[in-house]
Each structure stands twice: as structure tokens, then as C-alpha cells.
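Q: What would this chain look like folded?
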Amino acid sequence: MPSNWDALNGRIVACRRCPRLVEHCRRVAAERRAAYRDQRYWGRPVPNFGDPAARLLIVGLAPAAHGANRTGRMFTGDRSGEWLYRALHRAGFANRPESLAADDGLALQDAAITAACHCAPPDNKPLPAETQACREWLAGTLELLPVRVIVGLGAIAWRAALLESRARNWLEGRSLPKFGHAAEAQLVGGRTLLGSYHPSQQNTFTGRLTEPMFDAVFARARRLLAGERD
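A: My prediction, written as C-alpha cells:
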């Protein structure tokens, strides 16, 4: 019998709620990029990845068309993933610093990765209705995990985490805390939401996000999990 974590992932993969995204994922998987012409693409919603008992939850934006939509694992097969897994390894949340394929032996410890949108969207921009349709999967993920720290990678992921926190009565006050790199929002029950610029090439190539800046977010997450608030 599958675990609750595996069952949730199975439901995510089977989701067909957004026809635009379903068609885009299938089309990209059929056409493929020249460099990956000999590979079989995943071409479906990408499931959560990580420790099913994680206290740290990382929320991304959406799978990359030739990254996770190709490999079937979150942040695997693109430059953003290279940054993320190096940072997680340095912070002690991953057993290795790179993610090459879904069967490469990478494992996360006390950390899991999800997304505001589980399908690769055209131009990396999901529509508001599409992220809304995916909220059930974020809600289900938070229902299963003993989350103490959430890291939102980018403004859309930050907002998705805040809206779901509000729905769970984890967020006090009427206004949503403002996104920014290294921003912090205190949630009910001793939980914390941390913000980070997304490790996209747009941010990393321009120097808007550096590896020390990114590492600092996960070092802060590690301290919060250890009970250090200041």
C-alpha cells in the first residue's frame, strides 16, 4: 500500500485540470530540445520530492520545460536546480550537491520541494487560475509534513505559501507580508516563512542572486529548525 506521501504524489501526477498546461507539457515532450533528442521526457505534472517527514518545505514556481518536465523530478536538469541542490548540500539538507536524473541516488534530509504550479507553463508564467488549481497540492503537502520553515523561491511562491498559510489560520493580520530576498514572515505555531530570489538564470547571471546570498537563506532555515530565533 502506498504511503500518504506517495499517494499525494500519484494524485499530482494524474492531474489534468489545466488543458493549456497539459498540452504544453506534452508538446515540449514530443518536440524535445536538440541536446536531449535521445531522451524520453516526463511530460506530466511533476510530483513533490524529498523527505516525507521534512520540517523544511521549499516552494518553487513551476517545472522548467526542459528541466523537471524532462526528468520528472523537481529542479532537476537545469541551472536553477544546480544552484538549489548545491545550497541544500552545503546546508546539510541533501546527501550530494547535484541532481542529474530521478534515479541518481540524491536524497533530501529533513527537506522537501514542491511548487506553486506542478506543470511546466509556457514562458515560465502560469496563469493565476492555474496556480489556483494547484493550491490543493500545496495544501495536501502542508497537511502531511511537520513543517516548521517554508522557503518561497520568488514572489509567486511566496504569495502561494502565504495564501495557504492564511487558509490554515497560520497567518495573523489582514495584509500579506511583502516579498524580498531574506524576508521573514512569522507564522502561527512557531513556523517561519523565508523569502529568496529564485535561482533562475535571470537572477544568477546578473548577480541579483549570488551563492552566498542563497546559502544565507538555508543557513537561516537550519538555525530556525534548531530553535534559534535571533
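The first strand starts at residue 49 and ends at 50.
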